[in-house]
Amino acid sequence: MSGLTIGYALTGSFCTFEKSVEQMRRLIDEGHRLIPIMSETAFSTDTRFGRAQDWNREIEELCGHEIWHTIVQVEPIGPKRLVDLILIAPCTGNTLAKMAHGVTDTAVTMAAKSHLRVGGPVLLAISTNDALSAAAQNVGRLMNTKHIYFVPMAQDDPENKPNSVVSDFSLLPAAVLSAVQGKQLQPVLLQK
């Protein structure tokens, strides 16, 4: 299935931006149209993984669309049915918590809420150091929420970061196709 319009959202797990941008390219190559969305933090923060200005330029050039990074920009997504899917890749533990508790104070959480209110699918590619500790209850709550799907995930460094989980970004295109069909790509938990 090609030709989907995907609201592709990034939150502040900056260490996975490179993987995420690779998958943006892949989705575009497969014929999908991407509307980039970023949390205000992801849009404006320089880190050891790159300057915000450089990431923003690369993403806008790749997608051929300006980055939506305010609540006002993304609120019409649901009512106007602007996308087929909201994809949050990476999705931080902070964003998981906000979504699990109905907090919509960023462009990304508002985009998800707006799309969910019309029954649209939301796909999460989590990347968080506390997925198996403080964020575990939020992962569980969202796994049990209608229209929310996950890119399969695994512990990324069990020895040094036993609570950390990152989605397998290479499975993102397959997870997109499953989510728009109303199915969770299996298995959700991967062995690395």
TrEMBL record:
Gene Ontology molecular function terms on file: catalytic activity
Transmembrane region(s): none
Listed SUPFAM superfamilies: Homo-oligomeric flavin-containing Cys decarboxylases, HFCD
Origin: domain of life: Bacteria
Pfam families (alphabetical): Flavoprotein
InterPro entries recorded: Dipicolinic_acid_synth_B, Flavin_trans-like, Flavoprotein
Domain Flavoprotein, residue spans: 6-163
Protein name: Dipicolinate synthase subunit B
Organism: Faecalispora sporosphaeroides
Lineage, opening ranks: Bacteria, Bacillati, Bacillota, Clostridia, Eubacteriales
